[in-house]
Write a structure and sequence with these properties.
By secondary structure, the protein is mainly α. It contains nine helices and four strands. A two-stranded antiparallel ribbon has the order 1-4. Strand 2 and strand 3 form a beta hairpin.
Length: about 230
């Protein structure tokens, strides 16, 4: 259920984050250098580049987690005792999973957008022009309203590269940019605030029970036997 909840939250984030990311990504897709770099990469090297972006994003998120947990505890915590090591790890895991889902959904959306955009707006001839006249590998060549479209291997490679780069950008921006933080961490902060309040109430009741002499609730005969 938690995974489904995070996926739902990520879809909400998608509607808000993608327009901001497309502002700079659209500029990249129209440059010849971007086509040459990603369009000519062998599959193995494209996977390595995408993996590099993913690894950098993961390292950045993990490196920032201790600070984020401390700030979250300070912002939404109560007067109860500080979190223990295992509890801090649990909070960090919730933050990491939430951010990872958002990054994955945003990356997939950006990649899908550029595949569709490229098919509709960038013809086979234009793609070959971006690649200095190199022939492209056409996967599909449908016709729409009398115009011949082209889904090419190079376009898919470019979309994958831009999706991985956009994911890295989003992973960095969501924890550093004030606007992103306020927009995308507000719901998670509210959830954690409720969790902290429930923890404080649980500890308060536990201390109350610990201070009560339970023998007062036992029958007199049982107390005498003891």
């Amino acid at each position: 259920m938690r995974v489904l909840g995070e996926l739902t939250n990520s879809l909400t984030v998608l509607a808000r984050a993608v327009p901001l990311l497309l502002v700079f990504a659209l500029l990249l897709v129209m440059t010849q250098e971007t086509w040459i770099v990603f369009g000519s990469l062998p599959t193995a090297f494209l996977a390595l580049v995408a993996g590099l972006f993913a690894a950098l994003g993961t390292v950045f998120l993990v490196a920032r987690l201790p600070k984020e947990v401390s700030e979250l505890e300070r912002e939404v915590g109560t007067d109860g005792p500080p979190l223990r090591r295992r509890q801090r790890l649990n909070v960090g895991a919730v933050l990491f999973i939430s951010q990872a889902f958002q990054v994955i959904v945003v990356s997939l959306a950006v990649g899908l957008f550029f595949v569709v955009f490229g098919v509709l707006a960038i013809s086979e001839r234009i793609q070959e022009g971006f690649l200095n006249g190199q022939a492209v590998d056409v996967w599909l060549q449908p016709t729409l309203f009398g115009r011949e479209l082209a889904l090419t291997d190079q376009l898919v490679r470019l979309s994958v590269g831009l999706a991985a780069f956009s994911g890295l950008y989003y992973a960095i921006a969501v924890l550093n940019d004030k606007t992103y933080r306020e927009e995308f961490l507000a719901e998670l902060t509210d959830e954690m605030r409720e969790t902290f309040l429930l923890r404080a109430e649980y500890l308060r009741r536990r201390r109350s029970v610990a201070g009560v002499d339970l023998r007062a609730f036992l029958p007199p005969a049982v107390v005498q036997r003891r």
